[in-house]
């Protein structure tokens, strides 16, 4: 006979795994490569989302401290990632419009992005940054190791998940009223937080994994839109002190066109998931929940 309850994924082992995996990636070399930097940042975001999910049921001071520590660690790595993302984004445009980028290759705003910088993996500054990031993660992993999660109430977890869902829904509505960079970025952050928390509810129904896939695609496209915003800012199109050639104007148009294409992929999914009036239960479908 079919059981009348659902056993959720255990949270503490997953959380510990996120942190241990991030430390392993960080320690594989004196300086993590672009792929490792990306993966570590994702693991830290998953860790923070998980801590927020259980935060009301564990020692609050430790939970808040860990969230802040992991946020600080991820922020320290963002400097290593930013130039790489700009270069990758511009190269993707170059594939579609090679002649246009070739005409702009001598523009310092373009050439500075396309030239791959040397990794400073041998400098004391980089070593010190890596060491500090590692210490922040290790301290959080140590504190979490001694957190008691045996009495977590799954129904409270569901309420926390619903809170994350409602926050993302609110950001969605804000974006539909004004799809500026900040609003889209906030929507992406809240959507990813909801996505990472949703993982623990996979046993609820087959709908959950399907929803995760939709949200993952949507947030990736939101990330592409944000990367293009950052590229626009880097070439500084609104600064009246810098004259722009017709080629630069065309590049701005092409960037905007790519943003439009990504947004066209985002809105149908976002509307189905986060449109006002939608309820979390309609997306999940669940029975009695247990840990």
Work out the helix count. 11
Secondary structure: number of strands? 2
- Trace the largest sheet across and list its strands: 1-2
CA(first)-CA(last) distance: 20 Å
Poorly predicted regions: none
Structural class: mainly alpha
Strand content: under 5%
Give the mean pLDDT: 87
Radius of gyration: 21 Å
Helix content: over 70%
H and E string: EHHHHHHHHHHHE
Instruction: Characterize the overall form.
Output: globular
**Largest beta sheet, briefly?**
2 strands, parallel
Short overview:
With about 290 residues, this protein is mainly α. The chain has helices spanning about 10-25, 35-55, 60-95, 100-105, 110-115, 125-145, 155-175, 180-200, 205-235, 245-275, 280-285, and strands at about 5, 290. It contains eleven helices and two strands; from the N terminus they run E-H-H-H-H-H-H-H-H-H-H-H-E.
Model description:
- A two-stranded parallel ribbon has the order 1-2.
- Helices cover 74% and strands 2% of the residues.
- By secondary structure, the protein is mainly alpha-helical.
- It contains 11 helices and 2 strands, in the order βαααααααααααβ.
- The chain is globular and about 65 Å long.
Descriptors:
single chain, 291 residues, mainly alpha, two-stranded parallel ribbon, 11 helices, 2 strands
Strand and helix map with partners:
Layout: E1 5-7, H1 11-27, H2 34-54, H3 60-96, H4 98-103, H5 108-114, H6 124-145, H7 154-177, H8 181-198, H9 206-235, H10 246-274, H11 280-284, E2 288-290
Parallel strand pairs: 1-2
Helix pairs in contact: 1-2, 1-6, 2-3, 2-8, 3-6, 3-9, 7-8, 7-10, 8-9, 9-10
